[in-house]
C-alpha cells in the first residue's frame, strides 16, 4: 500500500493547521488572479469566507471539524460563475497546494474532488 491509501486526505493536507495555511494561500492567489480577483476583492467579509473555506475543506477531507456554511449551490446561486473562472480558481488552489509541499498524488485527489463539485458552482 502507498501513503495515499493509508493516510487520510485530511492528514495529507496537514490537518486543520495545514488546511488553514492552504486556504490563506488560495485566497491570496485569488486576490492576485486577474480572472477572478474582483469577485474576491468585492467580498463583504473575506475573513468569513476564509473560515467557511477552511471548514469546508476540513469536513470534506474527513476531518473532525463541522462545516457550518451554506451548501455550494445556495452559496453560488446568482453569481453566474463561468467555467473559465472555475478553472482559474482551481489553478489557484493547485498552486497553493504545491506551495505547501503537497505531493502530486494528493494534488490529483483534490483536483478530482474539485471537478466533482463544479456542477454545484458553475452558472447556478
UniProtKB/TrEMBL annotation:
Amino acids binding heme: 76
Entries under PROSITE patterns matching the protein: GLOBIN_FAM_2
Superkingdom of the organism of origin: Bacteria
InterPro entries membership: Globin-like_sf, Globin/Proto, Globin_bac-like_CS, Hemoglobin_trunc
Entry keyword Disulfide bond: no
Cofactor: heme
Single GO MF annotation: heme binding
Keywords: Heme, Iron, Metal-binding, Transport
One GO term of the biological process aspect: oxygen transport
Name this protein carries in UniProt: Group 1 truncated hemoglobin
Amino acid at each position: 500500500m502507498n501513503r495515499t491509501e493509508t493516510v487520510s486526505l485530511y492528514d495529507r493536507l496537514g490537518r486543520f493547521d495545514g488546511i488553514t495555511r492552504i486556504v490563506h494561500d488560495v485566497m491570496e492567489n485569488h486576490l492576485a488572479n486577474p480572472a477572478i480577483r474582483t469577485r474576491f476583492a468585492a467580498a463583504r467579509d473575506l475573513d468569513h469566507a476564509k473560515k467557511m473555506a477552511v471548514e469546508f475543506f476540513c469536513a470534506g477531507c474527513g476531518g473532525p471539524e463541522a462545516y457550518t456554511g451554506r451548501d455550494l449551490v445556495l452559496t453560488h446561486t446568482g453569481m453566474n460563475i463561468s467555467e473559465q473562472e472555475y478553472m482559474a480558481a482551481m489553478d489557484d488552489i493547485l498552486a497553493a497546494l504545491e506551495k505547501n509541499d503537497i505531493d502530486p498524488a494528493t494534488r490529483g485527489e483534490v483536483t478530482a474532488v474539485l471537478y466533482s463539485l463544479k456542477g454545484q458552482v458553475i452558472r447556478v
